[in-house]
Design a protein that fits this description.
The complex is a heterodimer. By secondary structure, chain A is of the alpha/beta class. Helices cover 29% and strands 29% of the residues of chain A. Chain A folds into 4 domains: 6-215, P-loop containing nucleotide triphosphate hydrolases (Rossmann fold, 3-Layer(aba) Sandwich); 220-306, Beta Barrel (Elongation Factor Tu (Ef-tu), domain 3), CATH 2.40.30; 315-426, Elongation Factor Tu (Ef-tu), domain 3 (Beta Barrel), CATH 2.40.30.10; 434-612, Rossmann fold (3-Layer(aba) Sandwich). In chain A, strand 21 and strand 22 form a beta hairpin. Chain B is α/β, with parallel strands linked by helices. Chain B has a 6-stranded mixed β-sheet with strand order 3-2-1-4-6-5. A 4-stranded antiparallel β-barrel of chain B has the order 7-8-10-9. Classes of the chains: A alpha/beta, B alpha/beta.
Chain lengths: 615, 301
């Protein structure tokens, strides 16, 4: 046998006495995995407690526990193993009893593929509908419909065709996209490992071939965005901090940007550490330890996700709940909810409706009894990262634990978050400047107007702001005079105070640009060095030095505030242009010739330039 | 075990076992890993080293000794104990009474040293999770065993109170006094174990490989006279045969099979062509009908 096999998880489901145990026993027998001593025990048991009049009773191979041997039923999920040349199968053997829906749900939870058995003599039963529904609910997309006991109806094709058609009719209401059907007999082995001459009208693959053709879940999920629930933080020494977990979806490479949820912080993957050496890539299904290039908070229960396609985050969501406890579920009771490696306290706030698993119709419900299924609203004490179950059962499936008895009381499948605003919770926890800008739909900028007093800076800046506002932009104006009334009122007009004045203005402008705003600064700011300092604080490409260039004579002639007069009279010391120098910009982004251009034209020009500025 | 293509079954099993080991370490307060020197134990230890790489194991190893293991097994144990923290526990009652398989019989011997010994070792050390290498394919009653198997205060297993295990979610809540047995190799078969030993070059006790050994025929199998304490019954005589062991335990209770399989790939070939079940060599299973299920309920691993 080949050593390189694919591992496939198979769930077998059927009704009472439809020959499921016999079929599984047969699979084990035909694939040579039943050892001789167990075969001897089988022969002995077949004579003593068998139901086949002393013939080999394959069912006895799989009905393990004493209690169920006595009762002649399967009371729990059992796991069996067989292998072909290309595949290793793990079979979850789910019982067919109506009261054991919980076992079937459990058995189906990890299945890649299902065998759904129908007794050819009985055709579709109520339980067949239940099984089909549970498979659809649990997201088992690959289903082989095995019509069993064909030997007992003389391998009659018409009966087979009718059962298949009956099932296909109900399957229309279910999500079973990859459905195949096959006539078999567990007792005589028809079409199980080899094609049977008795069903010459069936020209499809054998049961084994159908099963081998299934795809493992991990392969499906590999193309999805990265998901890894962090199981633990490995800190063997001061120099190593790694996050251990198994990828449930997607793939990851060193250098990939990942987002840690629910904090929302991002970092790049530095290394993928395993005992077998560092990996260039890890894929869904692998257990690894990731190290990141930044020291960010990340602990057990967090999810490391693709930065550009993270999980949703919510503390309230709608989910389908399958109840497993003998104590019914009542709204308002508290349970521990476990999802991935995270645990939260949960309350069912509302049972929307029950689901009749025979008709698939909604039913009114005030509580959920054991083996009942209902759509509920769930509220948590904290927000958790998740995906819709439909997309990823590892990040969308949870269990509910009764805090008093510690039993696993129910299982749940998340559909969607109830508070949509919570979906951006991860942004709320670390909103960076990009997020601020994005929510305003604009690019931040600092428009730094410089020029002599009276050159027209404030007039033009006001007009620019009005234009931007009309365009739906979010702006703020920092005016030299206004700031001196508040933030900078402790400053005078000495050289040192002027520098400090500009430093404060530059810092405020930076903060406001970080908040996503377009900041208009209207300051004489006579010194090149201070304007350069302001430019350096700003982000690349966001600082626009706008030189309102008016000759001193023009500015002095306007003298709107009467300041030049006072300065000339010696009443104002250190007045720019009079007894304090103005260093004109050498390479302003925009230069406005205030003598030649009207303020309106100037404003229009400025808006045009900054709108066209490259990103 | 890393590859770009679709994961192989061994890669998938390895990743699942590592996930389980990490869950056990993260969610229990005082876990311990049982170490019996058998091939499954060595595979489990290998997986644990991988799970916590580059760190050390976050739990000690525990060997519940019976004083009747093969000498080769003790050599392996001492080698492993030199590299990892290991507790060797011998039930003081069994020591005091000098319990042995010859005077007390296999059932009483196993019960005193292993079942009772394990129970006492776990409770005296306050371990709340014992990680072991049992597999579901070993025996019929184990097919329904959980990966996180809850044990009562008295360390009994109740098939009716076992919790459903969905997806990769394990309910690890328990009351004071209750504990878990954790089985990371649940989904492995004997063949998987040998394929993995071959692929990962894991060292195992040489008794698994065929060699000329001093044996005596008893109860349809070969028992090895591993030291001078071996007692022969009337008419028995020691002969030399090429034998190997499929499972290892106390040497007076472990049956050998005649075999030419001298290395891992021989063994794999032999298992693939042979149909004799692995546990057949264990005399304890044949004591009474459903004896393993009874032993499990009593607390045997």
């Amino acid at each position: 046998m080949a050593r390189e096999k694919t591992l496939l998880r198979l769930v077998a489901c059927g009704s009472v006495d439809d020959g499921k145990s016999t079929l599984i026993g047969r699979l084990l027998h035909d694939l040579g995995t039943i050892p001789d001593d167990q075969l001897e025990a089988l022969a002995r048991d077949s004579k003593n407690v068998g139901t086949r009049g002393g013939e080999l009773d394959y069912a006895l191979l799989v009905d393990g526990l004493m209690a169920e041997r006595e009762q002649g039923i399967t009371i729990d999920v059992a796991y069996r193993y067989f292998a072909t040349d290309t595949c290793k199968f793990i079979v979850a053997d789910a019982p067919g009893h109506a009261q054991y829906t919980r076992n079937m749900v459990t058995a189906a939870s990890n299945a890649d593929v299902a065998i759904l058995l129908i007794d050819a003599r009985k055709g579709m039963l109520t339980q067949t509908r239940r099984h089909g529904f549970v498979l659809s609910l649990m997201g088992v997309k690959q289903v082989v419909l095995a019509i069993t006991k064909m030997d007992l109806i003389g391998y009659e094709r018409a009966a087979y065709d009718k059962i298949v058609a009956d099932f296909v009719a109900i399957a229309g209401g279910l999500d079973l996209p990859r459905l195949a059907a096959i006539p078999v007999s567990g007792v005589s082995g028809d079409n199980i490992a080899s094609r049977s001459a008795a069903t010459s009208w069936y020209d499809g693959p054998t049961l084994i071939e159908l099963l081998e053709g299934a795809e493992p879940r991990d392969a499906f999920r590999r193309d999805q965005p990265l998901r890894m629930a962090v199981q633990s933080v490995a800190r063997p020494n001061q120099d190593f901090r790694g996050f251990a977990g198994r990828l449930s979806a997607g793939s990851v490479k060193p250098g990939d940007t990942v987002r840690v949820l629910p904090s929302g912080r991002t970092a790049n993957v530095a290394r993928i550490v395993t005992a077998d050496g560092e990996l260039k890539r890890a894929v869904a299904g692998q257990s690894v330890t990731l190290t990141l290039d930044a020291e960010i908070d990340c602990s057990r229960g967090d999810v490391i996700a693709a930065a550009d396609a993270p999980c949703e985050i919510a503390d309230q969501f709608q989910a389908t709940i399958i109840w497993m406890s003998d104590t019914p579920l009542y709204p308002g009771r508290r349970y521990a909810l476990k999802i991935g490696a995270a645990t939260a306290n949960a309350t069912i706030t509302d049972i929307r409706h029950g689901i009749d698993i025979e008709t698939f119709e909604p039913t009114p419900a005030r509580q959920i009894e054991s083996n009942g299924i209902a759509v509920c609203n769930v509220s948590l004490d904290r927000a958790i990262p998740f995906d819709a179950f439909e997309q990823n059962r590892e990040t969308g499936g949870f269990i509910l634990i009764d805090p008093e008895t510690n039993e696993t009381a129910g299982a749940g499948l998340i559909h969607f978050a109830l508070r949509r605003s919570q979906n951006v919770h991860w942004q709320a926890l670390e909103i960076d400047r990009d997020a601020h800008a994005a929510i305003k739909g604009q690019r931040p900028a600092i428009l730094w107007f410089t020029g002599l007093s009276g050159a027209g800076k404030s007039t033009i800046a006001n007009m620019v702001e009005k234009k931007l506002h009309a365009m739906g932009r979010h702006t703020v104006m920092l005016d030299g005079d206004n700031l001196r009334h508040g933030l900078n009122r402790d400053l005078g007009f000495t050289q040192a105070d002027r520098v400090e004045n500009i430093r404060r203005v530059a810092e405020v402008a930076k903060l406001m640009a970080d908040a996503g705003l377009i900041v208009l600064v209207s300051f004489i700011s006579p010194f090149r060095a201070e304007r350069e300092m302001a430019r350096k604080l700003a982000h690349e490409g966001e600082f626009f030095e706008i030189f309102i260039d008016a000759p001193l004579a023009v500015a002095e002639a306007r003298d709107v505030k009467g300041l030049y007069k006072k300065a000339r009279a010696g009443e104002l010391k250190n007045f720019t242009g009079i007894d304090s120098p103005y260093e004109p910009p050498e390479k302003p982004e925009i230069r406005i010739d205030a003598a030649a251009m009207s303020p309106a034209d100037a404003a229009e020009k400025i808006v045009a330039v900054i709108s066209a500025a490259p990103r | 075990m890393a590859s770009e293509a679709r994961l192989t079954h061994l890669q998938t099993l390895e990743a699942e076992s590592i996930h389980i080991l990490r869950e056990a370490a993260a969610e229990t307060q005082r876990p311990v890993m049982l170490y019996s020197m058998g091939k499954d134990s060595n595979v489990l230890l290998h997986l644990a080293k991988k799970a916590f790489f580059p760190g050390a194991l976050p739990f000690p190893l525990l060997h519940v000794d019976t004083t009747w293991k093969f000498r080769d097994m003790y050599a392996m144990r001492d080698k492993v104990a030199a590299a990892h923290e290991m507790i060797v526990y011998r039930n003081p009652d069994a020591v005091a009474k000098g319990v042995n398989p010859f005077d007390h019989g296999s059932e009483a011997h196993t019960n005193a040293w292993k079942t009772e010994g394990l129970r006492r070792a776990l409770s005296e050390n306050g371990f709340d999770a014992a990680i072991g290498g049992a597999r579901r394919d070993e025996e019929k009653s184990r097919a329904k065993e959980r990966i996180f198997s809850l044990r009562s205060e008295h360390q009994r297993w109740d098939p009716k109170t076992q919790r459903p295990e969905l997806w990769s979610l394990y309910n690890t809540r328990k009351r004071a006094g209750e504990s878990f047995r954790v089985f990371p190799l649940s989904n492995w078969t004997e063949l998987d174990v040998w394929h993995y030993i071959e692929a990962e070059k894991i060292e195992v006790v040489p008794l698994y490989f065929s060699a000329e050994r001093k044996v005596v025929a008893r109860s349809g199998t070969w028992l090895m006279a591993d030291d001078e304490r071996m007692r022969l019954e009337k008419g028995e005589k020691i002969e030399t045969r090429r034998v190997r062991f499929r499972t290892l335990g106390c040497y007076p209770l472990s049956g050998a099979v005649e075999s030419e399989a001298a290395n891992v790939s021989d063994i794999i070939r032999e298992i693939e062509s042979s149909r004799a079940s692995e546990r057949q060599g264990r005399l304890i299973d044949a004591d009474t009908p459903s004896s393993m299920e009874k032993k499990k309920q009593e607390g045997y691993f």
